[in-house]
Model the fold of this input.
Amino acid sequence: MAVVYLGLGANLGDREANLRAALARLAAAGAHVVAVSSLYRSDAVVPPGEPPGPEYFNAAAAVETDLAPRELLALAKRVERDLGRRPDAPRWSPRPIDMDLLLYADGRVVDAPDLAVPHPLMHERAFVLLPLAEVAPGVVHPRLRRRVRELASAVDPAGVERVRGPDWASDDGLVGGTDS
Done:
């Protein structure tokens, strides 16, 4: 079993319910959710010159799985489709759910055209690092050789706000909170 850290986001519909539904579907497919972060609100990332999109809710989750990286990616994409994400939608368009494979606890690196682990932009994004630092503070980014908590403390948190503790996901009995 590997521990994988996922980034989750939603900016359409009932954002919190969408995030819970994604975690529930992962768990139902055998990816055991062991920890979740607090829930954060963040500004949408949009291309330069575009109007702002709807605000996101973001979180991070630690998941234990025996799925290979590509299998986990396929599961995440299937969950996204099942929850209403259009795979043909333009990049950065609003979405009911977005899931990214961020890091493997064992330092695994994947370089493929359709999958990059660690996530290539995670170290630049406060909406990823602040929640991730709650569930994986001591995990080392295998390329940057820095702990997640260090990366989180170095990123500008402007536009990102904690709105609820990790209890948002335990409402349905999915997880019991954070384990660090």
